[in-house]
Amino acid sequence: MAMVTKAVSVMETILGPGVEVLAKKHGLIKRKRKFSGQSLLQMLVLTLLKNPEASYEDMASTAVQLGVAVSETAVKKRFTPAFVEFLREALSKACQQLVAAAPVKVALLERFNGVFIGDSTIIALPDEFAEEFPGCGGTEGSCKSALKIQVRLDLKTGGLPQVLVEIGKASDSKSPIAHHEPVAGSLNLYDLGYFSLARFRRLNEGNAHFISRLQHGTILYHEDGEELNLREYLSAEGIGNVVDLPIMMGVKDRLRCRLIAVRVPEEVANRRRQKAREKAAKHRRPPSAEYLELLGWSLFVTDLPTEELTWKEAIILYRGRWQIELLFKLWKSHNRLASHRENAKPEEVMAVLWAKLMGVLLQHWLLLSASWPDDRRCLLKAARALQEWIKTLIGAINDHDKLRLTVVKIQEQLKHVAHIQSRRKRPSHFQLLKNPELLDWGA
């Protein structure tokens, strides 16, 4: 019941009476007639969690459930610059909350004091926001305005130690999620956008570990100091399909680590090469022959020695990054995080976005209480089941005992419905974590 207690406590913190201080700070409620800062926040966050495409009528209906009888017009008038700033700061405070489930009982994960995955996702905005939220720019198909959500996820507990909102053109490698204080004994998994020898060294100095894809162009050396020509080495006759080699990275202050190279099927390599050519065409510069040849291999680097981690275990752990991609997919497809009403005024676009972000955090905390410890969890099934409970949640949000009972009931239902079946072909990630020998390295 500890997770239920924590989830209820956090909900009451971010959606409770304490938000009136923020409402007063931003001049949101000058004379309280019907709405308070608390009821406004609850109305918008919970309505959008129930229906991401909600209308003003839907919002007014929620307000009535919360004891505030107002018209659609009254709701519409509340979308002001002050409301946007109020929501933005409320979101900032929500992002500081930490809710984590009991650690998943998987031996491979239990070797580490946290398995942290860092990644980001882009939310495109209307061009009118380009000054405040400049987009990626520079290539065909890029957007003039966007924001970037940076997330650090603990694969063991489902906790989100960091959730940050940045401008769309912000560099991943410079994000605070890439420069956090290392957790001793932890494992850190980031994609190539965060690749940095300096970051790897910081992790080592903090007694933390990493597994990463190898950034093309990184200078490598054999242990004896001789430069390693990776293309020639991997194309040598009789090299085999798996290479597990101690190396050093970087020209200065060489970092001792380990290279894991796994040859992929030709059809996989050809798909990679086609994507590389298409991406290069957008930047109007062809990919090098060396780069295209190396796409025939999956290349990883890690500071963990072979006696502590097999090459199969390293690849399976790195595949854990897909869990944060699934989280982003849930937020964007189920919660419609990146969508906004056509022709909506700027204040509505941003108010809805901040409220949806608060909603997906709330959703994640509730899903943790029932789904995360289950190695067969399906967050999408859990989120769909949770959606059916939002009306009940609205009726209980301001009554501690009712809210706690509702969260307990939600937890009980999700435990029974939010599962995926074990698979003989293409085992799920958590099947692989439990039994690394199931890995088909050629897939």
Q: What does the model show?
A:
With 443 residues, the protein is an alpha+beta fold. It has three domains: 2-97 and 340-417, no CATH class; 112-213, Transposase Inhibitor Protein From Tn5, Chain A, domain 1 (Alpha-Beta Complex); 217-307, no CATH class. 43% of the residues lie in helices and 14% in strands. The protein contains 18 helices and nine strands. The chain has a nine-stranded mixed sheet with strand order 3-2-1-4-5-9-8-7-6, with helices on both faces. Strand 4 (187-190), helix 8 and strand 5 form a beta-alpha-beta unit. Helix 3 runs antiparallel to helix 16 (390-396). The longest helix has 23 residues, at 346-368. The chain is globular, with a radius of gyration of 24 Å. The two termini are 41 Å apart. The model has no long low-confidence stretch (mean pLDDT 90).
Q: What's the short story on this structure?
A:
Helix content is 43%, strand content 14%. The protein is an alpha+beta fold.
- SSE run: HHHHHHHEEEEHEEHEEHHEHHHHHHH
Can you tell me the number of structural domains?
A: 3
How does the major sheet shape up? Answer: 9 strands, mixed
**Shape annotation:** globular
Helix coverage percent? 40-55%
Q: Please count the helical segments.
A: 18
Mean pLDDT, all residues: 90
As a percent range, the share of strand residues is 5-15%
Give the tally of β-strands: 9
Find the structural class using helix and strand composition: alpha+beta
For the CA atoms, what is the radius of gyration? Answer: 24 Å
> Which sequence of strands runs across the widest sheet?
3-2-1-4-5-9-8-7-6
Gap from first CA to last CA: 41 Å
Unreliable spans: none
